[in-house]
Task: structure prediction
Amino acid sequence: MFDRFTDAARKALGMAREAAIEARHDYIAPVHMLLGLLDTQGGAASILKHRSIDPVQLRLETVELLPPGRYWQVSGTLPFTPEAKRVLEFSLEESTALGHRQLGTEHLLLGLMRLQEHRPDCGLPTFQAQN
Result:
């Protein structure tokens, strides 16, 4: 599945893993994926800008939503939570619906937004413009 991902999207998922480790979590959840996207340049940044969403403020809100970590040492491959897997599925659907051959950071962000729409309790901040 990851062969369709752009380099930026792969980097964002790598940064999501780093965010999970930094938070002392032994899994990758949608909140980690969002933090990974916010640390990566790509199409997601233009979507946030188009929606007048401040990425710095969104990062602050996202970090506040992180549950407390309970593992002191985390290494190796981290599994995606069912919600994170759903984000990947939504992202692939978005990419396909737009007729894109590759899956970029913009599709990952759209997948996160769709999850938040379908499951407001998924642990993500709302994607609303800040004034």
User: Anything to note?
Assistant: Residues 2-118 form a domain with the Double Clp-N motif fold (CATH 1.10.1780.10). The chain has one domain: 2-118.
